[in-house]
Amino acid sequence: MADTPRMLRIAAAQLGPIAKDEPRTDVVNRLRAMLADAATHGVELVVFPELALTTFFPRWFTEEVSGHDQYYETAMPGPETQPLFDDAKNLGIGFALGYAELTPEGERFNTTILVERDGSVVAKYRKVHIPGHDGDEPWRPFQHLERRYFQESDEGFPVHRAFGGIVGMATCNDRRWPETYREMGLQGVELIMIGYNTPIHYAPDPGQNALQGFHNHLCMQAGAYQNGTWVVGVAKGGNEEGVESLAQSAIIAPSGQIVAQAMTTGDEVIVADANLDWCANYKETLFNFATYRRPELYQRIGSQKGVIEPPT
Ligand code: CDT
Predict the structure, then answer these.
(1) What residues are labeled active site?
(2) Most Cβ neighbours (<10 Å): which of 63, 115, 194, 296?
(3) Whose CA is nearest to atom 9 of ligand 1?
(4) What's the rounded mean pLDDT across residues 132-155?
């Protein structure tokens, strides 16, 4: 008799805008409302977006890097986030939550915490690919100062045994890089959780603005398919402090197909039943890395001097 498939009911809890002066407790109550909504659908794991507790503060320059310290968490859970952790444990739902982390050593990371259904902390992931700039660039209609307010993590993309499978995390700009998925793919990942804040306007090349929605799904669908993994991509979308951000949260199967997608740009919960055993359909056939993947061959070609001169 065939084994029972490993089914996991997952939700992407998309957020609409968070105002600059919105109290943390109000935001946490929005998250708690979505958690309760997900519970009515029998969800076991809810994925919240990147920086899900505050407005996207790196859009404003401050002379001192500490000028935005009110937006960082120094403890997780802290007094304001504890009710979310309590609700989740009482409901038996796990969650991934993005937030700004300020460590006791004064380091600043763009972090996601993953919590199991019993309330235990599985892992923290700290964003690796930090986009934007670190100096004041007032010519832009709005700034993207992530490189001023967060440092790059050197902890890579570990995976974890949790939720009945092998899971990992990435954050926003990470999703555009194939290495993100492949690093976890090489460790057998079956579910990747990704939160994002993506402004529609890209100041260095506005020609990309019209393609934001396409690029968002393109990279996550390719990452899912090429590594035989589920991907949950969840946005903080809508017009936040005058900046229009992409919504389009999606749950993507190992086939690369979108199985659920947000219809709005506001707070919205989308749900899908993820069969984690579907990953093997790809991992054991087309993308059987042990049989077919040959990095040593392309590395050898690349090292032959004079084959292709790199641009100067
Ligand atoms: N938050 C985040 O990483 N956003 C980036 C915007 C890049 S434009 C500076 C993204 O890749 O969506």
Answers:
(1) 50, 127, 172
(2) 194
(3) 132
(4) 97
